[in-house]
Design goal:
Length: about 160
């Protein structure tokens, strides 16, 4: 089986480097293009494009200091995501691999599956944190969601 479009979901964890490395190996062997994706969770549901100026207190019913801190945190997360993705993108490009990247705000499992469908990926590569029992039930499992909802093959790196 040969893959032509590989979506690689990365984050700031130690496992992300292994996920990215495996994606690069497969992309080189298959001469595939890759799409690097990072998903941001917004605790208040504030979209990453929202700025402190564009949102009034009455729009969210939030305390101003909490809102400003949350918007600041989202902006910081967005900058960190872009830096992470650009770093991975440079590595892939230096190996001659066609690469695109993006970040999305929302529930990571859903975002990964949606991008895989929109980009028409034929393989998604994700990491697995190894949560079990109650911890997995409470926090959820991104890799489990992707395995059950992705429109293509999924490779889970433990």
């Amino acid at each position: 089986m040969s893959f032509q479009k590989i979506l690689i979901a990365v984050d700031h964890s130690d496992l992300a480097q292994a996920v990215f490395g495996r994606g690069l190996e497969l992309a080189q062997v298959c001469q595939a293009q890759i799409f690097l994706l990072h998903c941001l969770r917004s605790e208040l549901g504030i979209d990453a494009a929202v700025s402190p100026v564009s949102v009034g207190m009455s729009d969210l019913g939030a305390y101003p200091r909490l809102l400003n801190n949350s918007v600041w945190e989202v902006q910081t997360q967005r900058q960190q995501a872009i830096a992470l993705l650009q770093n991975y993108c440079q590595t892939a490009s230096s190996l001659g691999i066609a690469v695109e990247f993006d970040y999305k705000t929302g529930e990571p499992g859903h975002c990964i599956c949606q991008i895989a469908q929109d980009w028409q990926a034929d393989l998604v590569i994700v990491g697995r944190r190894g949560l079990k029992g109650l911890t997995e039930a409470v926090l959820g499992s991104i890799s489990n969601h992707v395995v059950h909802h992705a429109p293509c093959a999924v490779l889970v790196i433990q």
